[in-house]
Amino acid sequence: MDQKALWSGRFDGDLDDSTLGFTSSLDVDVRMAYYDIMGSLAHVKMLGATGILPSSDVSAIIKGLKDILKELEEGRLKLDDKLEDIHTNVEFRLTESIGPTGGRLHTGRSRNDQVATDFRMYLRDAVLGTLRSLENLQRALISKAEEHLDTVMPGFTHMQHAQPVTLAYHLMTHCFRLQRDSDRFLDAYKRLNVCPLGSAALAGTTYPIDRRMTAELLGFSRPTENAMDGVSDRDFALELAFCASATAVHLSSLAEELILWSSPEFGFVEMDDAYSTGSSIMPQKKNPDIAELVRGRCGKVSSGLFNLLMLMKGLPLAYNRDMQEDKEPVMTSLATLLPALEMSAPMIATMKVKEERMESVTEEGFINATDMADYLVLKGVPFREAHGIVGKAVRHCIAHDKRLEDMSLAEMQEMSPLIEDDIFQVIPVRRCVERRSSYGGPARESVEAQFMEALSQMTRRREQIDKESERLHQAMDALRQL
Ligand code: ARG
Fold it and tell me: Do 354 and 387 share a domain, yes or no?
């Protein structure tokens, strides 16, 4: 086969080999091969339905494309790096297999809309996969939380003991962060799932194409409204790179806590052997490497966002070859995030929680001081004054090496005569948690309400994801049946 570039007509000379190597994107866009074939199947079906191509050509092209799909799925499809990209490879293979009729496939489209369509299709599946993994991790957090509704631990600000909470409550914080990540992905999906095919190079086409039809055949919600925007918009990639980055920041923060908590200084948790590694020199070591790698890979995920932002900044309309560089960053962001999500779920599910240690450290650091101040407020003391009284009490306790609850009533009454015996109902650490039953608080019933809320949001979202996956599946299936 004469492997000339798709655009060789205008040129006298051949490309230099180094130019070919420099301009090729096959190593990255080969990941979109399946979507490229599917997009072509939809396009040619539309060309037939609108009478742009005769049905004999349409049947020949469909058969040729289906053979290529088979070759791809059986690992037999031969690709040539000299052919620039996956789109060119598929078209050449088609012409090689069915003859010059293959050349009619590109009627009414350009690689510019083709690549934007393939990219969106690739990302749709990647997003749906990411959403499922996010849900698994949320479920792992909720299950662990359910076991630890009464496991008291310090809540921190500035890494100092602040107020007592429970492990369930703390884990639910991570869960709600991931909830927002999932919502963001799902919201971005709406703008992703729009079809640029038929935008052609930038200005639509003179053929009577039916863009609604191709959009529908490919499972998109609608065609893009403006052809120039259709070929040049990469907001969907930027949004997803941000969604992935925000998720990675959350995963990294969770990982960081588990690493700290695994240290002997904290001693709150121990990772299961299946999610730890040892040292080549120090026989005693058990390291939380999985969590460390989750934390470490966060950088790679967000590098995709910065890469894309810099790539798109200042590009004039419409397509510019720079945009060939758009796929690798977002694909890498998502591909790096996914295993981090997938590893985090079982790591959390299997980690051993040292409840007694968690609770015992709440004895330190006057973690119940706010509760003592709140008590005084209820007795009529202005909060600012109460703050001062308890501050003095803390100083007194530091000097006498005791906890607030170890003071005698007489000692306390020296601080404020308003303090009565009922103070001892208020300042034991467990009571501090139990009494924080405001909406969204750490008391058992508040956290149970959070489980319900999180789970019902997850169920609703899951229904949307399943419905969307099913819709895409049906669309792809129908194209295979052509
Ligand atoms: N390989 C190119 C890309 O990924 C395909 C589009 C080429 N279009 C063009 N006008 N040269 O962006």
Answer: no
Q: With contact defined as beta carbons under 8 Å apart, do 149 and 444 qualify?
A: yes
Q: How far does residue 232's CA lie from ligand 1's centre (Å)?
A: 11
Q: Is residue 434 part of a domain?
A: no
Instruction: Quickly tell me which residue has 């049947």 as its tokens.
Output: 59
pTM here is 0.95
The residue assigned the tokens 């419409």 is 318
**Is the four-CA dihedral 28, 29, 33, 38 of positive or negative sign?**
positive
Could you tell me the CA-to-CA distances from 187 to 49, 181, 193, 464 in Å, in that order?
A: 33, 10, 10, 11
For 365-414, what is each residue's pLDDT tens digit? 999 999 999 999 999 999 999 999 999 999 999 999 999 999 999 999 99
Assess whether 242 and 137 both reside in one domain: yes
- Atom 12, ligand 1: residue with shortest CA distance: 324
Query: Ligand 1, from 110, 321, 322, 330: best to mutate by most atoms within 8 Å of Cβ?
Result: 321
Task: Report, as residue numbers or ranges, the catalytic residues.
Answer: 158, 279
Asked if 372 contacts 412 with a C-beta cutoff of 8 angstroms, the reply is no
